[in-house]
């Protein structure tokens, strides 16, 4: 009697085992491989999203930089000069005769700080000239010696930048040709601002924001 009961139980266990083996997916089976492929694709998709996000952020950063440069560029308008200007007093200026290259040239440094546009206004209105342009090392040295009489780190000269990124144009405000440079290290590529100042230490040039107030040198 006991043997009769054991036989059906053994048969039932064998059938159940075969059923489970048939339905359960093996690790090497196609179902598992498909699931793994989906997981990998999902992971790759996340990497793609991250990469795309990085590209978008980089693009937005470049656009922001361009917009910032355009904003700085809009600050500079050589024709938009102050209508009401008080000319500097004699004690606010230091005068210098021209160099051997231009004996008729006269330079006046105004020690009272002004913005780039404000400085150009004074040069044009009070001295019938412009912010100084520099076309040789000897003139740069001459103006550097004039600039170091101030207690400021930089003075305005007449250089400015039009455009941004790969479309930059370097200009002198008096319209003369851009045929000489004396940039400081890493300038102008890593500079900041659309106007150009002469450093009193070393006589090199640096970019500066046009709305900064500095002493300046007029040529007339």
Automatic annotation (TrEMBL):
The keyword Transmembrane does not apply. Residues 63-83 are annotated as: Disordered. Residues 1-17 form the signal peptide. Residues 63-82 have a biased composition (Acidic residues). The keyword Disulfide bond applies. Keywords: Disulfide bond, Signal. Residues 107-219 form the C-type lectin domain. Pfam families: Lectin_C. This is C-type lectin domain-containing protein.
